Amino acid sequence: MKTILIMRHGEATPMQADDAGRNLTQAGHDEAEKMGLWLSKAHCPDALLVSPYIRAQQTAAGVAKNNVFKFSETTSDIIPEGKPQIAADYLETLIATHPQCNTWLIVAHMPIVSYLVDQLSPGNMPIFNTGAVAVISYDEQTQRSSYISINAPENL
């Protein structure tokens, strides 16, 4: 069994014309570091898949302060308007080709994070607060997933 952790980026600056260039606020940086510490204790992620948008990259950097990744990649498949089927297929391919990685962290955005949970575990589409992490158990043999929980910085 593998674990898939799907995380929404931390709190970001307000919407602007260049959505990809939005930065985290100080609260967003704090959320990323708090969740990174929790992840290191609760799940020890060893693989990272992150959106190229600045706020997701900054969130991943905050999480990385307390975690070491054997595999890390930036992909446009998980930007806000990304296609969940493509993202799920790509993730499953990466899991199959990197058997040394047991816990995969995906750092992305609304609404793709909710749609990706539903794609992997149909019928489960949680709404993510900023910095929240959904936990999914994934059986690589059957390619079936089970939604476990969602954890937000304000609840830790």
TrEMBL record:
One GO location term (cellular component): cytoplasm
Signal peptide segment: none
InterPro entries: His_Pase_superF_clade-1, His_PPase_superfam, SixA
GO MF annotation list: protein histidine phosphatase activity
UniProt-recorded name of the protein: Phosphohistidine phosphatase SixA
Species for this entry: Pseudoalteromonas distincta
Recorded name of the encoding gene: sixA
